[in-house]
Amino acid sequence: xxxxxxKNFKYRLLSEMSFKADFLGELFVTISINIFTICLxxxxxxxxxxxxxxxxxxFFLASLFYMSFRLFVECLDDNMFEFFETVFEGKFDxxxxxxxxxxxFVLFYFFRxxxxxxxxxxxxxxxxxxxxxxxxxxxxxxxxFFVSSFISITIGILFTFIMVSLNLFSQKxxxxxxxxxxxxxxxxxxxxxxxxxxxxxxxxTVPYMFISSLPVLILKYKQYNLITLSIIPLLIxxxxxxxxxxxxxxxxxxxxx
Length: 257
Hints:
The protein contains twelve helices and two strands; from the N terminus they run ααββαααααααααα. With about 260 residues, the protein is an all-alpha fold.
């Protein structure tokens, strides 16, 4: 399976890089949007040192993680959206004849490798920023930061998989990506504006809102209890995703074409 994934990544990378104008254009737009967002919030924070004790430095760290996370999840978004487009257009029959695991088609076959590379670069920029500004005080903080990053990314992947899989119960493509894009903007909300009890309720019920701020809360605010608390939404999302995966196997062949 891993050998197949790496070979597919190599093929996709060569395919994407053959259209250099599209790649450079998308890269320019992505960087421009994120820089504009940071500059906009820089102006907002110039009128106040913090919002609910959430400083611009906190926002900047969360934004870097959000950029990296969002690009990584978009790789899966694009793959799953392309998968459903193929299914709804009735062009998936030829793929079913191949001796390849269904999970490979859903998550990796249409993967955007260039976005993955950019996501990794931004994540290393985040690590460099943390180390350069001495935000990390000890080795255990680094480990907990990576753990919280892994939890956030896993929550984002499971939530995205569940949302996109709603197409399983529709007679047409629901274009979940459009709604996901707007819903993801909630990640910019400072988590410190909520009361402690409300934050815990939202963290369990709508964990996607805090995937970008969780590593910052662990790293700067030392709220290590959130790692334990995150197990609850993680298990809930995993269980729902598992149920959807079973539906994939039973309902896939009933799609149109």
